[in-house]
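INSTRUCTION: Work out how this chain folds

Token vocabulary: learned, describes local backbone geometry

RECORD BEGINS BELOW THIS LINE
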Amino acid sequence: MKKKLFRAVLSMAAALLIAVSALPRTAYAAGASLSGSSSVQAGNSVTLTLSVNSKISGLTAVLKYDKGLTLTNYSCSVSGWSILLGKDESGNDKFNVYGSSASGAIITVTLKVASGTAADTALSASFDNIVASDGDSDIDVGSASWSGKVAGAPSDNCSLSAIMCGNFTLSPAFSPDTTYYTTKVPYSVSKLSLDYNRADKGQKVSISGTELAVGVNTVTLKVTAASGKTRSYVIEATREQDPNYKPSTDASLSELTVEGVSLSPAFSSTVTDYIVYVPFETKTVKLAAAANDSKAHGIGGTGEVAIEKEGDNALVVTCTAEDRVTKKEYTVHVLRMPQYTGTVPNVSLPEPEPEPEPEPEPEVPMLKIPVNVKLPLLGEVRTVVAIGGGVVLALILLFLLGLLIGRSTGGGDDDDGPDGPDRGDDPRDRHDRRRHDRDDRDRRQEERRTPERPRSVPRIVPREEAPVKKAAPTPRDWKDFDIPLDDDAPAAAPAPKATPAASVPDFPVMGDTVEKTLAEEPVSKDEEDVRTMSLEDLLKDIHDM
């Protein structure tokens, strides 16, 4: 009995398994969705995407949408799949896509909103009758829909409600309709800090130029409205110079050219005068130049310049240094050739500019001697009288000085005898002194004749006259004088020792006037000495007298 029951159950299970295996298999799909922006502007387009969450190998669906929408584009979102578009019985767009197994986004369509559609108008679209297939069986997925609304026109507001420039003040004060401002910052500020307030939340703002160099900088705030309209706010920010900085005085050029021709001489920054030759048909020339200092303030006189006349046309290019004071001019003589008429014209070079005449030296004012001078104790006297009186006074002082010197020197010699001042009146002593004086004078004359006279000094040769013969003076001896002598006195006084030439005074010793005159009587030998005496010796002899 039990065996029969087991066999019956087993037979029923087998029959059920066979029946199940004979049923058709269905694709498993949890569902489909249609996604896209819920807000769209009139005249704009919206993109919708149909997606499934299970793997499929094919899909068919019918697209339906409102009258305010128009299908403008479609595509299969799965790479390698094929897509076919047809119509169903109602005239709706029917899509058929297929390929290898895939899931996710399957179909993408673009719908355009009709222009003029009122704001807040509701829009809708859907994929209906969606049937998915896994390759063996099909399953009805149902439908997927989208809804949206027409948004109002985008805002054209591209103005800001405020601009803040750190701790620095904008000039003029901010206004939404004012787009140009200036500000000044110290040298220590290298970057401008900006902040702003939007007037509309749909605006987009971009900022550029906040890194500041020394000098003028342009900072720009560009505002883009929701509609795409733009407005720019410009801030001219001036960064002050370093207080220790000295601007350059270099106003020279590093380059100077005339388009199509060559300068003569070749350009050099130190040469400021050039010449170029152009045909008669040339009406304009184009000059270009570059400053040697990149911080130079500017260059004037460049660009296209008209040539107005035949011959020399002097064009001046001026470079201004960074200090805006120092300038340097470069002159280009554009020599326009004469028109050719079958004969070669004579071309004359421009005459060089004349050198500036030197400034006249200042006149030295003439010395003016006043007519009258004011003297102490005398009051105002004539200048000539004062000068003459001064000369006379000077001569008197010189005479008195010489007299005092002569007396003091002569008196000393009279008292220097070996026996003291009490023996000065002794005739024998006087005779000895006179003889000593004559010997000393002869010795000095002999010393003057002996050394070789200098050749460079001219000799004074007096006019030759007949020599005058004079009787030779009779030699005298102290014995010729009838002078009583004491018995106890010595028979003869010892001869004085010769004094070295260096110790002999420059003037004769004072003695008896008569005897000295006789002793110094000129003789022929003395005259010969005078004739042959050099100028130097003559002057010395006059000084000794």
Remarks:
- The first helix runs from residue 2 to 22.
- Residues 218 and 236 are 5 Å apart (CA to CA).
- The two ends are 200 Å apart (CA to CA).
- The first strand starts at residue 32 and ends at 35.
